[in-house]
Write a structure and sequence with these properties.
Elements: E1 11-13, H1 24-27, E2 32-47, E3 52-68, H2 73-83, E4 95-104, E5 110-117, H3 119-128
Antiparallel strand pairs: 1-3, 2-3, 2-4, 4-5
Length: 142
């Protein structure tokens, strides 16, 4: 899971940015050409304070593959990086944006950006976090 920060990839969202989530309407609605159910292998989800954290692990996370409109891409990228408090190269990041393979439920594979818990937080979650069984935050008992 890696990639150049300059790649114009779709986004794999798994928490509050999913359709119906509290951040979807203001951050994504009207700015996408496609949103479809997808999954991403090699990840597990942990409960956070009102949102989940994805961490590399033996599992699969369910979410949505979101493709911004070409004219909206830079703004969507800016908004999502800001929401996730991600700044390239900043050691204080809570999330890191990385490229990984998403699998839309209709088939195929697409590389996509996904925000994962940064290393210090991921280590803490593995040690003492609450795992979300099944990897689907929308279905989790919150």
């Amino acid at each position: 899971m890696a990639g150049s920060t300059g790649e114009r990839l779709p986004f794999f969202v798994y928490g509050t940015l999913r359709p119906g989530g509290r951040h979807h309407a203001w951050a994504l609605r009207g700015r996408t050409v496609r949103e479809e159910p997808a999954r991403m292998a090699g990840l597990v989800l942990y409960q956070g304070p009102g949102y989940p954290y994805a961490v590399a692990g033996e599992g699969e996370v369910r979410g949505e593959l979101v493709v911004p409109r070409p004219g909206e891409y830079e703004e969507v990228l800016r908004v999502l990086d800001e929401l996730e408090e991600y700044r390239p190269g900043d050691p204080a990041n809570v999330y890191e944006r990385v490229a990984a393979e998403a699998r839309p439920l209709v088939g195929g594979v697409e590389r996509a950006w996904v925000y994962l818990a940064a290393a210090p937080l991921a280590a803490r979650l593995r040690a003492e976090g609450v795992l979300i069984a099944g990897g689907d935050w929308a279905k989790a008992d919150r």
